[in-house]
């Protein structure tokens, strides 16, 4: 059903996940955390039998197409792998949700005469009372220094934080799911694009968590695995240092509010040549380097807790 030489619809992703569940009974199953504003299922696949849990999401921002592609590729990887080398999946359970913002994603795919305007959509597709502008930036909508740095209170802005923390059903669904599993959840990874970076908290300011060095150690091990695998360079550090300060993000919330020790955000390929329009021919190689990074980050963090 899915291939990794093209970008696919949210429906295709759902069908692929159903297919995985039917074919890999016992080791992987689908799960749902809720529904989007337009009623789309927020569906993912969990693989593994372990007590130590890892969360992976993609598609928070609509136009960052390589992100859902890589997360569905991770589903392929971990579902196939569980047959042979089961070690990682005996100790861990990995939750993978490819498209957290399916309404936005489908909007960017809806093309037509408004192609350019739609293809570069970033936000959700919720209505804003009193404004004709649509949507909020899901990665400014989490309750972690909400509305402070790097976000806007203007519903027409691309970085609109929303009318209140968790105003969006998509971010609420993620919040409720993760809060229900905090006892076991050890790692949070979110995939964005582009610029080839790997962030450790915090992003809202240059403040660092007490265990910053440990998180940096794990991130650097991930970065090294990428370099070994594809030769690609990813910069490692705080988003507030490497990119800009921005509050209300999922990574900061996972770390500071949900108490998930290891929290990371990836910016996938490339460094700007194609940007959001990354050629689908790069999905497979991006996936390969990210599998190496995720494997390494999971195993190298497990030594610590
Ligand atoms: O601004 C963002 O949300 C991310 N960059 S993107 O170009 N994909 O929009 C960076 C996220 C870093 N983490 C936080 N800002 N919390
Ligand atoms: Zn993004």
Give a written overview of the molecule.
The chain has a single domain, classed as Aminopeptidase (3-Layer(aba) Sandwich), CATH 3.40.630.10. It contains ten helices and eight strands. It has helices at residues 10-23, 66-81, 87-91, 102-109, 115-119, 169-179, 212-230, 239-242, 250-256, 283-302; strands at residues 28-35, 41-48, 52-57, 92-97, 185-193, 197-200, 235-238, 262-268. The chain has an eight-stranded mixed beta sheet, with helices on both faces. A hairpin with a 5-residue loop joins strand 1 and strand 2. Helix 2 (66-81) packs across helix 10 and helix 7 (212-230) packs antiparallel against helix 10. The model has no long low-confidence stretch (mean pLDDT 96). Zinc ion (ZN) binds next to loops.
Q: How helical, in percent, are the residues?
A: 25-40%
- Overall structural class, as computed from helix and strand content, comes to alpha/beta
N-to-C order of helices and strands: HEEEHHEHHHEEHEHHEH
- CATH architectural designation: 3-Layer(aba) Sandwich
Let me know the average pLDDT.
96
CATH topology: Aminopeptidase
Q: pLDDT under 50 segments (min length 5)?
A: none
Quick one: how many beta strands?
8
Taking the alpha carbons of the first and last residues, their distance comes to 38 Å
What binds here, in terms of ligands, is: N~2~-sulfamoyl-L-arginine, zinc ion
Proportion of strand residues: 15-25%
Q: Estimate the global geometry from the Cα principal axes.
A: globular
Number of helices: 10
Radius of gyration: 18 Å
């Amino acid at each position: 059903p899915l291939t990794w030489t093209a970008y696919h619809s949210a429906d295709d992703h759902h069908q692929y996940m159903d297919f995985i569940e039917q074919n890999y009974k016992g080791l992987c199953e689908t799960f749902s955390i809720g529904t989007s504003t337009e009623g789309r299922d927020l569906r993912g696949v969990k693989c593994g039998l372990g007590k130590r849990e890892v969360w992976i999401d993609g598609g928070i921002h609509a136009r960052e197409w390589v992100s859902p592609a890589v997360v569905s590729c991770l589903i392929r990887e971990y579902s196939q792998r569980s047959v042979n080398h089961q070690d990682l999946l005996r100790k861990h359970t990995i939750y993978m949700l490819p498209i957290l913002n399916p309404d936005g994603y489908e909007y960017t795919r809806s093309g037509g005469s408004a192609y350019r305007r739609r293809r570069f959509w970033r936000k959700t597709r919720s209505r804003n009372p009193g404004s004709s502008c649509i949507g909020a930036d899901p990665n400014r909508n989490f309750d972690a220094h909400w509305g402070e740095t790097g976000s806007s209170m203007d519903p027409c802005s691309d970085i609109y934080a929303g009318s209140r923390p968790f105003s969006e059903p998509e971010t609420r669904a993620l919040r409720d799911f993760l809060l229900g599993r905090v006892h076991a959840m050890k790692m949070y990874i979110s995939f964005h694009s582009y610029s080839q970076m790997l962030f450790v908290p915090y992003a809202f300011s240059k403040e660092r968590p007490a265990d910053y060095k440990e998180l940096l150690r794990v991130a650097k091990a991930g970065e090294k695995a990428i370099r070994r695998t594809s030769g690609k360079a990813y910069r490692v550090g705080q988003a507030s240092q490497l990119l800009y300060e921005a509050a209300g993000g999922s990574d900061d919330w996972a770390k500071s509010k949900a108490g998930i020790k290891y929290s990371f955000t990836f910016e996938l390929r490339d460094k700007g040549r194609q940007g959001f329009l990354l050629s689908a021919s790069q999905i497979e190689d991006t996936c390969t380097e990210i599998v190496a990074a995720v494997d390494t980050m999971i195993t190298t963090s497990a030594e610590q807790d």
